Amino acid sequence: MTDSFEARGDFSPETTETISDLEINVIPDFTSDEPVVAATSLEAIAPVPNGFVKLGLAKELLQAVADMGFTQPTTVQLATIPKAMQALDADPKAPKFTDLLVSSQTGSGKTAAFLLPVLHTLLKQQEEAERNERAEFERLSAEAIARGEAPLKKPKRKDPTNMRNFKAATPGALILCPTRELAQQVCADAIDLVRHCRGLRVANVVGGIPYQLQIAKLQNADLVVATPGRLLDLQRSMQIKLDQVQFLVVDEADRMLDLGFADDLTEVNQLTIERK
Ligand code: AMP
Q1: How far, in Å, is the centroid of ligand 1 from the Cα of 17?
Q2: Contact of 265 with 136, CB cutoff 8 Å
Q3: Potential cystine with 178: which of 1, 86, 155, 255 (Cβ 3.0-4.6 Å)?
Q4: Which of 30, 74, 181 maximizes ligand 1 atoms within 8 Å of its Cβ, making it the mutation to test the pocket?
Q5: Is 110 in a helix, a strand, or coil?
């Protein structure tokens, strides 16, 4: 069976690049002549050229793929990740994001092909936001000292487990899956990949989880993996806002349409229309 996902698309064919000639077998790159070394750290795999390093992924993600025993990107990962990361190109005139329509067999590594560039970009944006926040705090603190006032105190962090502090999640990335099982699998893969990323939160939104627990798990989520029905329920009850979504991935888009999710997809597309 062939699966497909659409990344950051506005479903407009003019702006979508199609990668559909990936008639490939499971993880074909392992036929490479390169010696494959099982490694648990980047240092340990250093003697072997690591294809993921060449893709320019953040070190936290490189460490995670090494932990997971991935030594070389698969064909779909090699074809997709550099295109999805063009968003970070230095040229300000370049279109910010490229829409991708990818068709690749189950087992070919397609989940990591969309998760890695999305997580990489979220991570880099988070680092930049933290840098700016720190610089602003230091600037305001220096101004206060110059006026003879006490230096600023960092605001106390609110207890995120206290329901009174709950607020609507505003994820930067949204992955839609046609079934609860697939959403849980993709979420588990994302959690494996963020194991070294301090502060990147992944949440799963699927039917069958008690509502309050779902809301608690959604707090501060940066990446949400969801089935459309439960996602739209939470959006309508204002537990999640989708206007900060920059990346929309529709995993197994063909199956999604077969299962009658076309209207839900249109609605999610509209709710995330501000994505670049
Ligand atoms: P998928 O196509 O996303 O269903 O991926 C199938 C399997 O391939 C999953 O079990 C992944 O853990 C594994 N996988 C993904 N990328 C790689 C890689 N570069 N090297 C080895 N295994 C991988």
Answers
A1: 23
A2: no
A3: 255
A4: 74
A5: helix
